[in-house]
Amino acid sequence: MFGKQTTVFDSDLYSSLFTHERMREIWSDDNLLRCWLRFEVTVARIQSELGIIPEQAATEIAQACQEIQIDWPTLAKETQTVGMAIKPLIDQISAFGTPLVGQFLHWGCTTQDLLDSGMAMRLQQTLQLLREQLLDVGEVIAAMAIRHTRTVMVARTNSVDASATTWGLHVCSYLTEINRHLARLQQLYPRAVTGLFGGAVGNLASVGEQGMETRERLMLALGLNVPCGINNASQDAVVEVVQFFALVHGTLCRLANDVETMGRTAIAEVFEGEGGGGSSTMPHKVNPRASNMIQTLARMGWMYASGAPSMLDQQDVRAASKRVLNWTILPEASNALSTSLTRAKNLLSHLVINEEKMRANFDCSKHFIMSESLTMKLAAKIGRESAYNLLKKLLKNATGEQNFMEVVLASPEIRASLSVAEITAACEPLSYIGANDALIAETIAEFERVKTVAIA
């Protein structure tokens, strides 16, 4: 029914702002049960191959898991009683299947085996989708960097006009972080997609001598990594994933902050081109809604990252209460990041770059921000300290009525060391962008390299 949902993730009004269609499917109850059923079918097949259970039992378990129509109301009601959905699910399959199904289904397994392996399966799908999205964002940034390699603009530090740079190099600062995120993803992926099979207390006692081989074959068949040792109380790999999400949010939030700031009317160097974002009362106003949502999603991501370590608060072989947190943290954190990456890609793809305004904004400081350029030119003649002090004194006494070149040309001390041509060249922003082209090139080259490295 419309209007009855209670969270932004399933809200009829807001869910499209907070969820990504494919990510929502990954973390849906439907996919959760598919993962659990796949686990039960696979473990039965492996155990039949090892002679632990009859081959016919494995066949009938597979048939039951394939044909069963889940009674969702009953499953939900019994889950409320039990506190976990695994036993109610096993009861439904056993009741639906043959006597062999009831006898050998879930052989040697415990609830956590399905919970953690099912989570690893969905994390596998999640991280593959996020890698795809990171690459999409990286491709857009790389193309923009190449296109704007020589689009000169004011570089600002601590919110103050500082010197000259290019839009191409500036966006490469985002790509540099994307490169590192892709590398981090490659490193954490094997840990995140490690399954679990250990039985009641993790020692495989219920499977007997073939427990280790069952575990290895099962994980390989599921496409998961084989765990090492006992991991029932360990949630560090899950927490690591959520912390990784927070780092990616940092990059996206900085991008959004820059677009929002540079889009202010007085600066007007870039603005969102997707449309929308209108005011309910001011006809002229178009709000930067993509940037706003990316900023919101980042704060949600950081909130999840701050809460995720609570899952590490374990004792004994395992403690369910804190581990249950991943039922809400992972789906929400995954959707928040996936949605933000989609917004970032669309934002960048439609971003309007006002090159003329970028150039014109050097006039805001009357080109005084080219002072370092001239200082270094002058330093070659009279030394850096003397050059710095001379320019500092000169600019301190400037009235603001003249631009930088006019002030400099009026200085006998500077004219004694530099020609008009040298001064003019030093005051040209494009003459002081340093290793701009090489920095852009090496960043893009690293992106081309890292995107070829598959996660496995």
SSE layout and pairings?
Elements: H1 15-18, H2 21-26, H3 29-49, H4 55-67, H5 72-82, H6 86-96, H7 99-104, H8 111-147, E1 152-157, E2 160-166, H9 167-192, H10 211-222, H11 236-262, E3 270-271, H12 289-307, H13 320-323, H14 326-350, E4 352-353, H15 355-360, H16 371-382, H17 384-396, H18 404-409, H19 412-415, H20 420-426, H21 436-450
Antiparallel strand pairs: 1-2, 3-4
Helix pairs in contact: 3-4, 3-8, 3-10, 5-6, 8-9, 8-14, 8-21, 9-11, 9-21, 11-12, 11-14, 12-14, 16-17
Q: What would you note in describing this structure?
A:
With 456 residues, the chain is mainly alpha-helical. The chain is built from 21 helices and four strands. It has helices spanning 15-18, 21-26, 29-49, 55-67, 72-82, 86-96, 99-104, 111-147, 167-192, 211-222, 236-262, 289-307, 320-323, 326-350, 355-360, 371-382, 384-396, 404-409, 412-415, 420-426, 436-450, and strands at residues 152-157, 160-166, 270-271, 352-353. The chain has a two-stranded antiparallel sheet. Strands 3-4 form a two-stranded antiparallel sheet. A hairpin with a 2-residue loop joins strand 1 (152-157) and strand 2 (160-166). Helix 16 (371-382) packs across helix 17 (384-396). It is elongated. The model has no long low-confidence stretch (mean pLDDT 92).
